Amino acid sequence: MARDRRRLIVVSNRGPVVHGRDSAGRLVSRRGGGGLVTALDSLAARHDVTWIASAMSDDDRAVASAATDVTVQEVSRSGSQFGLRLLAHDREAFHGYYNVVANPMLWFIQHQLWDPARPPVVDEQFREAWDHGYAAVNRGFADAVLTELERDPDATVFFHDYHLYLAPGIVRERCPEALLAHFVHIPWVGADGWSVLPNPLRRAVHAGLLACDLVGFHTERWRRTFVDAAAAILGAERAGGAIVYAGRRTETVARPISVDAAEFDALTQDETVLARQAELRRCRPEQLILRVDRTDPSKNILRGLRAFELLLERHPEHRGRVTMLALLDPSRQEIAEYADYTAEIEQLAAEVNERAGAAVVDLRIADDFPLSVAAYKEYDVLFVNASFDGLNLVAKEGPLVNERDGVLVLSENAGAAEELSPWALMVSPLDVGEQAEALHLALELPAEDRRARLHGLRGQVRGHDVAHWVDDLLSDLDGISPLVPR
User: Fold this and answer.
1) pTM of this prediction?
2) Among 3.40.50.2000, 2.60.120.200, 1.10.1660.10, 3.10.20.740, what is the CATH number of 269-463?
3) Digit-coded pLDDT (tens) for 308-326
4) Please, which pLDDT band fits residue 352 given cuts at 50, 70 and 90?
5) DSSP conformation letters of 43-112
6) CA spacing 20 to 30 A to 171: which of 195, 373, 385, 425?
């Protein structure tokens, strides 16, 4: 549906481009990864977009300091221009914001990873990180948004994710009529889960989001939990799918993000992808179980390895025929919990191979997206057993390009389950035995069943791609006027 061109201010911790140096030492930019970057293509092609993000590297900082007009012009994959405003936060403040509060505290709370008998510990150091890190960086983002709104008060502000829960409230206080939206890309937990945070902080998180006109989630499950938590923690009133708090009405929606099908179609013929696929085929087993993840505790990789080992123990007919290829992107290794988890993965994979007497687990820890796409084409089973996940794009990417009628084994706690469960084999992420049996069933399914499941998955993803997600959210925003008292 055609829409009038609108001014959008997109706000997220990471930006859509990554800066580095070429062989001559000159600053260059390349496209960043992730669903938001893909979504930008649809936005930038039809709207005037300014993206506000953190300067994550020294080269990003160099770009930010060299910008004469604060905002620099970049080009999206489709050739559309957009403005990029990089914020060079104080390094100590950014450390507290990113490495102490956002990751791991908020991420661990929302993925139900904390063990209250041990960590976390909310002490003076954490409170310092909250006040002078998380809150300070959120203020920096809010100040940048307000500067952009001075240029164009009619622009729509579109915040993203758990890094920026406080910024909308700051903007709202100083710009009461602004149109604000926030999309949360990770799960939401109930009031009991939020009790890990002291009461003033958990209230600040929810109040910050309720300063928005619209709050979006990937699933109805996370949306409903947010409404319940806001009612319990703040005393907010439910109003159908909306929430009324502090004299304002906030709409809530469930809109699952997706992928760019055309982009993945093109990637299947990319020279680097084809070369990686040829390498895989030269040494592929008779059947291949694939997982593609970040080395994040929420991805449940350790239980996945145990489930695969149990599969070989219970069903020895698979020995010598099946290998698990685990392609893991190293994540947040500067944070102890993540570095420790990566070490546990490496140790357990080695132990499984030692007990099997063969390299039944092919573990590769590296950032190699072309290899992931090549492996998507080659899997017989795609294994996604996350303990909790806001959505999980792997479950959508793999079926788009798979060439072997591969079967998806999917955690019931992945947000994608709400959309893809009719065509996947669903498992409890904590039940290693159930996962082992699901892998066995996936390997043994008749060809006609495998083909029908993949066809259903592919049709769902192609019919609800990332452009569909963008259009739905803009339609939601079209029904909201910031000028009407809420």
Assistant:
1) 0.93
2) 3.40.50.2000
3) 999 999 999 999 999 999 9
4) very high
5) HHHHSEEEEEEE--SHHHHHHHHH-SSSEEEEE-TTS-EEEEEEE---HHHHHIIIIIIIIIIIHHHHTT
6) 195
